[in-house]
Amino acid sequence: MASQIVENYLKAFINHSNSEGELLISQLSTLMHVRMPTVNSMMKNLKKQGLVNYEKYKPLSLTEKGRKVAALVVRKHRLTEMYLYEKMGFSAEEVHEIAEQIEHINAPKLFDRMDELLGFPNFDPHGSPIPDSFGEISE
């Protein structure tokens, strides 16, 4: 199980990478609100874990393993947003902050049950696609 910090990096990566699936360290630094040396250190760590393709001075990309972990974090976030919106009556503006906390729970059955109760939605309240339980994202 990835740490909350690792999950946040991977989620930022998948949400903001370009059409080739690449992101610059400087972009990730800005997104994560941390200094570039901190991002460099984290990318070296994620490379060791097999989650990121990292070469000095080159754009970053996720490995297949990293992409799947990131997509599953995004799935938990977006399913939570949808559940809060559809089943609990929260506004679309309110759901993000709560989902930011819940997305780090390691309970696949919980999120599969949310998916089922929601009728297996393809999109969250903001119109973003929800990855399936295998980490596949349909556009």
Report what the structure shows:
With 139 residues, this protein is mainly alpha-helical. It folds into 2 domains: 4-62, Arc Repressor Mutant, subunit A (Orthogonal Bundle), CATH 1.10.10; 71-139, Winged helix-like DNA-binding domain superfamily/Winged helix DNA-binding domain (Arc Repressor Mutant, subunit A, Orthogonal Bundle). Helix content is 54%, strand content 5%. Helix 4 crosses helix 5. The longest helix is centred in the middle third of the chain and has 23 residues, at 64-86. It is elongated. The model has no long low-confidence stretch (mean pLDDT 94).
Short recap of the structure:
The protein is mainly alpha-helical and 139 residues long. The chain has helices spanning 4-16, 25-32, 36-48, 64-86, 95-102, 108-117; strands at 22-23, 52-53, 60-62.
List the helices and strands and how they pair.
Blueprint: H1 4-16, E1 22-23, H2 25-32, H3 36-48, E2 52-53, E3 60-62, H4 64-86, H5 95-102, H6 108-117
Antiparallel strand pairs: 1-3, 2-3
On the 0 to 100 scale, the average pLDDT is 94
By secondary-structure content and strand pairing, the structural class works out as: mainly alpha
Order of helices and strands: HEHHEEHHH
Q: What does the main sheet amount to? A: 3 strands, antiparallel
The CATH architecture term of the largest domain is Orthogonal Bundle
What value does the Rg take, in angstroms? 15 Å
Total helix count? 6
- Number-wise, the strands total 3
Helix share, percent? 40-55%
Report the sheet-strand fraction: 5-15%
Strand arrangement across the biggest beta sheet: 1-3-2
Q: What is the CA–CA distance across the termini?
A: 27 Å
The CATH C-level class name of the largest domain: Mainly Alpha
Unreliable spans: none
Principal-axes geometry comes out as elongated
How many structural units, i.e. domains? 2
CATH fold category name of the largest domain = Arc Repressor Mutant, subunit A
